[in-house]
Amino acid sequence: MLERCDPIRVGAIPSEAIQGDWDPMSHLDSVTRYAFARLGSREEAEDVAMEVFQAAFRHRTDLPKKVDPNLYLIGMTRRKIADHLRSRRRQRGGNTISLNEIAHEPATKSDDEGLLEIVRALDTLPELQRDALILKYLLGFSTVEVAGLIRKSPQAANSLLQRARESLAANAPHLVPGGTGEGEML
Length: 186
Known about the structure:
Elements: H1 7-10, H2 28-39, H3 42-58, H4 69-92, H5 111-123, H6 127-138, H7 143-150, H8 154-171
Helix pairs in contact: 2-3, 2-4, 2-6, 3-4, 4-7, 6-7, 6-8, 7-8
């Protein structure tokens, strides 16, 4: 599985350089895990995390007092991922695929293979459904928090999560409990 992130390796701002009453670096792990789940590449996830923490450092005094810093950073991450994906499409052109998108069969089964299988299954979902599932089940946000992050009402977020679970079960039943497979991954 994805290991905990080292801020020095990611190249983010050191904690001691951050002033103010919150430390965005304490959220590095959740930001990087979310980016990895969305992008499927450790290197791209670390790049996005670095951009998020650079922006957080620049805007650290602008954080409203009543906002949960983790929700704030995940919201920033969603926007940075969208920027990253747009940039990637512009650089490659619309009809090309990256090497990361080409499926390779590993010689031996590794722990990361299960995570990559989940990422591939999530990639079959519409972006908003994929985001909602990642936020809810990978990062552990409540449905109300997911609703705030995706800018929907809690009822709409709950409905979206239900549709996402149904779509995932249809696309990859072996990953979902109660599907036709083992259901041990999600």
